Amino acid sequence: RMETDCNPMELPNNTGFEEDSDYRDFEGTDVKDMRLEAEAVVNDVLFAVSNMFVSKTLPCAEDVAYINVETRERNKYCLELTEAGLRVVAYDFDQTDDRLQTPYHETVYSLLDSLSPAYREVFGNALLQRLEALKKETQS
Predict the structure, then answer these.
(1) What domains does the chain contain, in order, with CATH numbers?
(2) CA angle, 91 as apex, 65 and 82 as ends, to 5°?
(3) Parallel, antiparallel, or unpaired: how do β-strands 85-90 and 76-82 relate?
(4) Cα separation of 42 and 54, whole Å?
């Protein structure tokens, strides 16, 4: 297994998470629907965590959504997604704790990278496999 100092955060993000113009003009406003954003976030990194889903208990709105995530280390978190980014709002599913003053992360990748060494390893291995596949494509 190859070790690397590459930070997945430095690689181009092709998810369209930031640039997705389809949702930019949602219902004639400039506000993105955060539930759609949250679903995109979940779909992007689900392979690298034990469980992840948009909360059905906590209210979603145009400007906020909540995502439950369980890392491969079996730690549970409730994440808040807003225009400011993502942050941990509780250490259990479907909860918020106003006393928690956790920092915002611009991307789900940096947030999970800070919470879960196992996420970092799985995500890094997936990137290496993609790079190997691309290398084989260009050689053939």
Answers:
(1) 34-139 (3.30.2280.10)
(2) 20
(3) antiparallel
(4) 7
Two structure tokens written together for 15 = 């998810």
CA distances from 118 to 28, 30, 114 (A): 41, 37, 11
Q: What is the pLDDT along the chain (140 residues), one digit of tens a residue?
A: 343 344 444 444 444 444 444 444 444 444 458 999 999 999 999 999 999 999 999 999 999 999 999 999 999 999 999 999 999 999 999 999 999 999 999 999 999 999 999 999 999 999 999 999 999 999 98
CA pair distance 137, 140, nearest whole angstrom: 5
Question: Is the separation of the CB atoms in 64 and 34 below 8 Å?
Answer: yes
For 111-137, give the DSSP string. Answer: HHHHH-HHHHHHHHHHHHHHHHHHHHH
Q: How many residues are given for the chain?
A: 140
SS3 category, 33:
coil
Task: Say which residues have a Cβ less than 8 Å from residue 18's Cβ, sequence separation at least 6.
Answer: none
Given a contact cutoff of 8 angstroms between Cβ atoms, the answer to whether 41 and 15 are in contact is no
Residue pair 33/23 in contact (Cβ under 8 Å)? The answer is: yes
